[in-house]
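Consider the following assembly input.
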Amino acid sequence: MISLTKKKAGIHSRRSMTGNIVVFGFVVLLGLFSALPFIFAVITSLKPIDELLQFPPRFTVVRPTLANYSDLFLLASNMWVPLFRYIFNTTLVAVLGTLFHVVFASMAAYPLAKHRFPGRNIIFSIIVMALMFVPQVTFIPQFVLLSKLNLVDSYAALVLPWIGASLGLFLMKQFIEQIPDAILEAARIDGASEFTSFFRIVWPNTLPAILTVVIFQFINLWNYSPKELVYSESLKVFRMALEQIVAGDPIARMGAGAAASVILMIPPIVVFIALQRKVVETMTFAGIK
Amino acid sequence: MISRLRSLPYTKKKQWYGFLFVLPWVIGFILFFAGPLITSFKYSFYNMELTPDGLKGSFAGWENFRYAIFRDPQFIREAVNSFVNMFYSVPLILIYSLFVAVLLKNKFRGRGLMRAISFLPVIIASGVLMQILKEDVFSQGLRGGAESVYLFSGAGINGILTELGIGPQLIEVFNNVIARIFDLTWRSGVQVLLFLAGLHAISGDLYEASAVEGARAWEQFWKITLPMLTPIMLLNVVYTIIDTFTDYGNGVILMIYNTAFSQVRFGYSSALAWLYLLGIALFLGALYALIKKRIVNLQD
């Protein structure tokens, strides 16, 4: 790993006090806008049933209660398959899908960005084209294919298609292009094989981009619930289970639904916060250029 | 195989390693995306029907395409709408997300928290909450368009404003403005993240050197940050355009989806999707050619 230890350039605030206040105010406003739906969800989940059904609905909660959460767990514990199994399924699918996508997409992105080989441009145009296509339209042919391969109703149906997803590849290619050829050439002269230069130079230097792709993909998969692809109860993901609970009786279980949505939101937020810190940390030692 | 690769001349070797690296992805892509893509292209020339023994189709030639362009009252109008919509929303999203990214790049107390908060909409937008918010029993009647969020078009904020004693007309104006801003924050989370990654990749040396030379933050932004960010800018432009065009709330996307799943006309729906794709591709190609020259690459 090349660690050209570098301190962050000191652009210390030469801004005026008023400028700082304006910026700070803007940041707070932005934060409010972005956080409002989440706050709303949390508040909704704390409302007792009569306040949920109140018309017109209010933003605030008068008598906060955790009953919705306990209801949810009560409903979940009465289910056929233990709740833990659903959580395990979601985690497995999200982790494996993310891993496959990130590793294979970044591997493919490296030569597309840095090597000249025949067919390179064609592959890249196909990738951009695939990005533009509406997923709903390929869904039916994809389903037909998966059922021909006998993969429907298995983890493989949820995980394998992500090997060929193009968003991560597209992002990674643009970032890898920014690594100077000089570093790669230096590595080659020092005797690094292509695998070594990929894992020891390209990866550390594009870690922020990789983690960005990881974040996208994880969030995407965490919320992924293709009801058509799995129908065995023991293979279903957490989100499907929660949706089933709520769908059982949409009005009486509204509170439980709100609680479920809050619970579902927490893991992606945690992943995001953890990785975002890592992005910043790596920037300080793996300086490109 | 790898040992044979080692003995090849370097340029040849590099090509072979290139293939080797791309291969796993290409296999996945061909199997799970290219295949279905080609199938859907084939569907677009057929009249697909759902029969008890599965999908059956009869060849229709160009009929689907001809119908879409000349006779469908909805398709062309929706497509034009989504292009017009793209023209003002893409620059807005880009400017806004660049602005936010520059703000969030600065070191300040609680930066990590702010970054997390600014990314919240992306997490929520793809989650169940959206559906629960949208399918809320009472909001059904109150909601105007599908694109705005219940919280603002519905009763969430309205409730507060009414309690504050503000007239209904003012509330409507206020709601519109807020819904727009909200839509913006809602759709620029990914772009902010990309810009942030790009901003962090800019070497600190440049800022240091220019600060020594007496450049101010404003000049640094225009002369260093912006040019160094052009590769990410291109990426973001392409991403945002594609994202706006394929957003679930987009009229054409809804139409394609409904044609396939409510009307069960898979053939026609595929034809629409391919026509739409062609339009976007032409537009992106032209745009790409236009801005490609302005990209700054340090290596050259």
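Residues 87 and 241 of chain B are 9 Å apart (CA to CA). Ask yourself how this observation constrains the way the partners meet.
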